[in-house]
What we know:
By secondary structure, this protein is mainly α. It has three helices and no strands.
Amino acid sequence: MAFEEATNSTAQRMMDQAGGAAEAARQTLRDGYGSVRQLAEEKGLNFDVRDFVRREPWIAMASAFAIGYVAAQIVRRIS
């Protein structure tokens, strides 16, 4: 019984840590997006993501993969 409780406690603690790391990554991405958007508006750039994805789907997918990879590495190093 004690082993089961310890295992459940450890699993719950790990899930809490993972949730915290995911929330931190989400907030970092949200802040970064806001900063990039603000900079683009200040420089007078008008970038429509939907239009870009329609015109250049392979570049959009490669970019999404690269961003996901970098985010995963950041989350991995944080936790």
